[in-house]
Specification:
By secondary structure, this protein is α+β, with helices and mostly antiparallel strands. It is built from 6 helices and 8 strands; from the N terminus they run αββββββααααββα.
Length: 229
């Protein structure tokens, strides 16, 4: 019996030692429509996904498709904020962008949604405020302050593992349907997706492992009871 329990323990240890990046999967993204973030995407043939762009320095066009690696933000919960996940984005960047992505709701005005998007773009730029709504005068100051408030709130937010697990980070791998030659040779955006209630694969394995450990413990106690009888 001890040998069986040892095998289970070794199996679970091997699962937890696998780098989390190995749980990342490759998907096909296609931009369907959108005049402003978040945009309507087809992800692996399912055209009902809203994604927010993270980098204002890169462009994509309606109809453009490419492959991307997806990373669940919740898989990095508890890591140092400075840990780089991919494409220069750190855990802290992605957690802040996750909070901001969650702010897109029907209760926000179009101006507020743009301020949220500006804050998301500012995260990658080292929190330097980017505003695309106004260009000068009091309007610019108002927008700057609004974006700064969104950024500071995102930085201060301490979400749970369950919260961050609802967000997926998409990093482009290959592309080419409609290359935009004036933007880094056609390289598409990095995007963030929000799926409330999403359970990532790493978390599923943790739940499975917890169940197996509990079952093994119960079996061990039962064997002890039978020997004592």
């Amino acid at each position: 019996m001890k040998s069986k329990i040892s095998v289970v323990a070794l199996f679970l240890l091997a699962i937890f030692l696998i780098p989390r990046a190995s749980f990342a999967t490759t998907v096909t993204l296609k931009l369907l429509s959108g005049s402003g973030s978040p945009y309507q995407f087809d992800v692996n043939g399912v055209g009902t996904t809203l994604l927010s762009c993270l980098n204002d320095g890169l462009d994509v066009n309606n109809g453009e498709s490419w492959t991307a690696t997806e990373y669940n933000v919740g898989a990095y919960f508890g890591d140092s904020k400075s840990t780089v996940v991919a494409d220069g984005f750190t855990v802290g960047d992605l957690e802040a962008d996750s909070y901001l992505m969650a702010q897109y709701t029907s209760n926000l005005t179009s101006t507020q949604n743009q301020e949220v998007q500006d804050a998301i773009w500012s995260i990658l730029d080292g929190h330097d405020v980017y505003t695309g709504l106004a260009t000068s005068g009091s309007s610019q100051t108002t927008e700057d302050n609004a974006v700064k408030n969104y950024i500071s709130t995102a930085d201060a937010y301490n979400g749970t593992s369950a919260f961050y697990s609802e967000f997926t980070f998409y990093v482009p791998v290959t592309w080419g349907t409609y290359q935009d030659d004036d933007q880094s040779g056609g390289m598409p955006q990095q995007f963030m997706g929000y799926t409330p209630g999403l359970t990532p694969e790493p978390s599923s394995l943790v739940l499975l492992g917890t169940g197996i450990i509990g079952l093994a413990g119960a079996m061990r106690l039962r064997m002890k009871a039978l020997k004592s009888a």
